Amino acid sequence: MRGAGGTSGGIGQFFIGLFMMCGGFYMLLNDVIVQSSFGMGMGLYGFAAMGGYYSITSGMIMIPFILGVGMIFYNIKNLLGWLLAIGSLAALLFGVISSIHFSLRSMSLFDLIVILVLAVGGLGLFLRSLQEAKQAES
């Protein structure tokens, strides 16, 4: 009978490692706080020109998008309309993603050590179960 992953590794190690890994990574991801500062007046991109600093806001990105959609509805084969619409959506998506902030919730050192031992120890045990078990030499 073959073990975990078709190898001669242990099925018990496989499931214990899987449960430890899932529990540890769940606890770790459950303690991450995700915040966003995205808004229509938020400056996404900035550049310096003529002695000043200018910022392109997310609301300004909607102008080429609206023009592109209008051009597409007027003529579906208009390449400039497609470029404006897709480029504006890509810039808006990049702006949303770049405005996300991740932080770790306040916890004790013991909690963090338990989470990391479960996650990384479970991953090690899980991967070890997928290796071929060493045969005892006779």
UniProtKB/TrEMBL annotation:
Q: Which positions, given as ranges, span the membrane? A: 12-33, 53-74, 81-102, 108-127
Q: Does the keyword Transmembrane helix apply?
A: yes
Transmembrane helix among keywords:
yes
Q: Which UniProt keywords apply?
A: Membrane, Transmembrane, Transmembrane helix
Which protein, by its recorded name, is this?
Answer: Uncharacterized protein
Q: Which organism is it from?
A: Solimicrobium silvestre
